[in-house]
User: What shape does this take?
Amino acid sequence: MTPGARRVLEAAGRLFYERGIHAVGVDLVAAEAGVTKKTLYDRFGSKEQLVVEYLADRDERWRAFLSGYLDRARTPRSRVLAVFDAARDWAGPHLSRGCGMINAHAEIGDPAHPAYAVIAGQKAWTLALLTDLAREVAPRRASGLGRSLALLHEGGLVAHGMGIFPDALGHARREAEALLRAAEGEG
Assistant: This one.
């Protein structure tokens, strides 16, 4: 990616997240990035594609961040809890307004929009990850446990973003830990 395209993506990411996808036009993104609209369109083709790239970049950065937590976890239970620990730590610098994917979904509900697949794919990936990790804890309960963990994770992200109560992600983690203890006892 050229330096100009990288600046466009960074500006778009910040503006789309802070102000909303529909509220931000390509003129503002280009101005913030210090490029012309022609440069923006030459690299991304359309605002829709820029939104796709923004969401894919955000997802890629989250997965890389999470990977470090998973790599350091040594037990099946700690691997599941690592997802919640990573979310809590990611929330500080990256989630002042809640989950970027959930926010994008609020604006892009049409499955025909090219960004919809990125949004839905990220949430499906999270469910699959938590289900795979749950399988290491309680193989016979993996599907249901994975769904419950995903609900706790997503609910924690939403509650954090909305400021519903303090330490929503920490609360979600504690509830996940209780679920895991119960599941370990059941096998």
Notes: Residues 47-72 form the longest helix (26 residues). The mean pLDDT is 95.
